[in-house]
Structures are given as structure tokens and as C-alpha cells.
Specification:
Chain lengths: ~200, ~160
Amino acid sequence: MTKKSGKMDRNNIGKWFKSPGNMGQKYSLHALYFCTGCGIIEIPPTITTRWDAERFGVIPVATPRQANLFLITGYVSVKTLRYIIRSYEQMPEPKYTVGFGSCPINGGMYWDSYNTIKHLDKYIPVDGWIAGCMPRPEAVFVAVTHLWTLIDKGMATGYLKYREHYAKYRRNQEKILGELEWPPLFSKEEENEKSREKVAG
Amino acid sequence: MFESISTEGDGENRMTVKCRKEAVITMLSFLKKTGFDHLALISCVDRLNDNVLELVYILSSYGGDVAMQKLNILLKTTIPRENPQFYTATEIFGNASPYERELHELYGILFRGHPRLTPLFLEREYDIPPFRKDFDTRKYVKDVFDQIPFVDDKKGRT
């Protein structure tokens, strides 16, 4: 270990005492790679020896129930959206979503396609985006380090937003997919939301 | 039945055979017996100006001599655009089944005699089959995907 990294560790001691939970979340991101579209071709070099994602504490896992980082790699068709939502709802909290490539952001080159959804954040909350078509593996690490900052500052709260505005998200999902075959994860009513707004107002 | 068949080679490895729609199944059967035993693809072209759909069966061969193995046959036929119906080729080539299901949902062609003409790719229902030329994708996106609101958050969280 170099001297510099040792120094960094000492600087982090304060953070570890302040919020050990956050620091634990930060350095053990278990990533679920949702292999939609062309972005998945960047993932094997990212997680293997060439760019070794484990240096950053990112490790691929097999099932959504073990994961807390959700990488959507590429365009999302209507059929895939159903399984993205199912996977997202199975992940334990806290969970972070990162959209990878321009297609989940605003459709990208599929901006007038009949079958791809254009904005992923209308259906599930997204904590960060990586722009590019395609982003290189280094961009994944830039995103991960940005996500560390967000977790430190308590800004990566997409899962809380999903909890709070579940009714709206569910309504959006049902508009595209029709009747969903799984029961709602949280309460579908918007009463909680309204009462909270009253208190805030 | 066979008088309207016209063939045309491009001098290299592709031969285009055009025939009436009644002769297609017979032609496929004949070509398979001749040695073109591999159906590579069934494709469709929407010719909006002529008001027809053009079906293209691409056949190739794994047997025979070298000249035959290099040759691809494009068997073309046209069917009317309104209420398009055709006969299935699954009896001759078993692998025609997924191609016909694909054409059924993307172009709206009804293949008579197909054992299982269920949806293959698409999740939603479309008024006009989406690969037709008169399907306006931009308008569809505006009407469906752009109508869905963003989930706003008072606290301005990402």
C-alpha cells in the first residue's frame, strides 16, 4: 500500500465513526447488471482483470436479493421494463440505481422508437446517470466514486423517493404495462404523501 | 400456374425468383427437393406506393456441389396490403414458424395453417402493426411515452 492511500484511510476515520453504516454501504456495492441492449459488452472488461471493479468494492452478484447497486446497461424496451421493475423491487434497501448510456436517459438513438421507453426515471428512481454511447469502463468507476460522494452527503435517496411516491410510480408503470401481475410493494394510496405535504406546507 | 415465374441472376451468387402467390408453396417444396434445403429468412417489404406487401423467402443449400452451395435464392411474391393473408410454410420448413410469427405481429400478416400464431416480441397492442410504412413512430411516441409525467419531488431529490 502506498503512503498516499494510507493517508486517505486515516482521513476517513472520522467518517467511519460518524456513520459506519454509510461507509459500509459505500465500499461494498454489490452490483446487479441488467443486461439490456449493447451496454453489457462493457461490463465483462469492467469486472475482470483489465479494469477490475473490485478495487472500488464493486462486485457482481447473481440475484437481485443480494444486490444494492442496479446498473441498467442500455436501452429499455417495454418488455424489459417489466423485469427491471420486478428486479428493482426485490432488492433490499438501501439500493442505488445507475443508468448506463444515453438510452435510459432520454431514449438516445431510439428517441422515436415504437417500443423503447424514453425516460427510465419515470418508472423507477435513478440515482445517477452515465452519459455516452457507449461509456467506457472508466466511466463506471467515475460513476461509482460520484455515488460514494452522494452516499456520504446523504443524497443517494432514490429508494426513499420510491417509498414515498410509490403511488405515482406505480401509476406510471401501469400506464405502460397495463395490469401488473404482482401486488404493490407499498401502499398504493397517496394519503401519506398528501399529509406529509400538509405538514411541510 | 408457373407461366408467370421470372428468374433473374445477378451473375454472382444470388438469384431472384418472382412468382405469383399461388405458386409459392409449390415452389418452396420444389426448391427443397432440388437441394435448397435451408430456409435462411422470411422477410417482408412494405411497398406503400404499389399497395402491396412483398414477401421474400431466402433459401440456401448445404448440399450439392460448390456452385450450388454458393447460390442464394430469393423467392419473392406480393400479397395485397389490406387484410393480408397467406399460407404457412411450416409444413415444408419447420423453422419458418418464428419468422411467420414475427411477420404476423410486425406487419399484421395472417398465416393460414400456422400452428401457434401467438405474439413473439411485442408487449403492447398497436392499432397499425409497427413495421408498416404508414405507422407514424414519432406520433406514437408523442401520444404514449411523452404523456407519462415525471415524478416530481418537492425536496428536489434525484
